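Supplementary Methods, section 5.1.

A reviewer requested that the exact input to the structure prediction be made available. We therefore reproduce it here, unchanged from the version used in the analyses.
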Amino acid sequence: MSKPVTETSEPIVVFAQIDCLVGDIPGNADKVIKAVRRAREEHQADLVIFPELTLSGYPPEDLLLRPSLQTRVEKALNLVLSETRDATLVLGLPWREGGKLRNAAVFIENGEVKAWYFKRCLPNYQVFDEKRYFEPGQDACVVEWRGYKVGLTVCEDIWENEPAADTAALGADFLVNINASPFHMEKQRQRKTLVQSRARDNKLPILYVNLLGGQDELIFDGGSFAVNEQGHITFCAPQYESGLYPIALNQIFSGPEVASDCIDLPIEESIYKALVLAVRDYVNKNGFKSVVLGLSGGIDSAVTLAVAVDALGVDRVRAVMMPFRYTSQISLDDAEEEASRLGVQYDVVSIEPMYDAYMAALNPLFEGYSRDTTEENIQARIRGVILMSISNKTGALVLTTGNKSEMAVGYATLYGDMAGGYDVLKDVFKTMVFRLARYRNSLSYVIPERVIVRPPSAELAPDQVDEDSLPPYDILDQMLSLYVEQDVSAEGIVSQGFDREATYKVTRLVDVNEYKRRQAPVGPRITARGFGRDRRYPITSGWKLGE
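The structure derived from this sequence is encoded token-by-token as follows.
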């Protein structure tokens, strides 16, 4: 691409990869203004590009239905216009006009809106339900700026060819695509491959700017990048780090291709950083000063503790070991070592006297019944009461430690180990938990090797291990991935070589434990099909397994 004739030096473009708070429209506008000023002062920015729905945050969900939305957005937009008169920027916001609400991108120059673009392709799958709120736009948009013709699109528009093709047909020199694209495993690779293809097909450089931050279960990982018309990646911003990332426009067009590892992080590193970002934002954005969790000496609580410390710092994390007669000395030693290595406040509270008191009260009611999982659940519920009491007294958020494998088959106790406000590993299969432990130890040794290699156990009964009730996790997780994430039937799983009896047991457990998952804490989504927003199954159902 040849550079258009201009009267000034090559423009500097800044990718503003910022972390917004959903619903805080004035606060988000203030972030935009400060980012523009910094971009101008520190990078001599000529164009600053912000993510999708920056002013409202993403996803605003039913806040979009509030009658005062438009008034708030208009006030915020007018403030941005008045405070950025010496700047040019692309900004995402919701906009209602003529009775229709749209997902908009505006091109602002010298304190005025020079062009409007309305998102044409509205996603309505997985975690997205934009058709509930927005009307689609109809037209492509190209705006003149500094001798260039700049095209605008929003997020999902790039996943369909027509918006990019229409923009190219209008003579655009490059395309700005602003995004609030949530993370899941392999998502960045999919984005990169797609945008490269779109750029090559349309001979159109593309600037892809993505949101950064955690929002309830969604994680926005940043990772903004640019490709030239040959589809080569010539610029990339880091994942999981907010900031202002500048580059000269001609380098986007003709600069050298960047190293692939700038875009593709190893999967364990990517997931771990996503969890850290999710915990940090959930705790901070909801105003919690600290967190508390039960530290059992097992792998799940060990990884959760490490994530919490890396997200918040040692002074904001408290770990509580709550032993019982079945708790092994190994677990006691390992939990103490984990807390010591990470430097967190560590308390030991025996649940023995509380359990005895419960049983003394319940024994007359249990007369004639044999011992079963009821007594195990009482142990878990006592621990839940202790953690929630600490939470109520200190204001600390309780982090639960259940993983996706356990949540899938109901291997958790309602109002016990499920009691809390945020489940860090909710969408992380058990086998990946072990991989994350190895990854974290590669940074610094904080999880004892014995925790990683010994058989997992809830330690609710003598000599208990998880495989007493479940298939080995390497097999279980494959089954669950097929059934939960890919919708393969029980018979379809059996046809892939899995044991029929074990398959039907596992799939049945998934189905009957939907009621538990509905009552589980929210947790960060790191797979393409997590429990929550994008897997919605009825609790009451006559669906038959096998088909």
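Residues 188 and 366 are 54 Å apart (CA to CA). These observations are discussed further in the main text.
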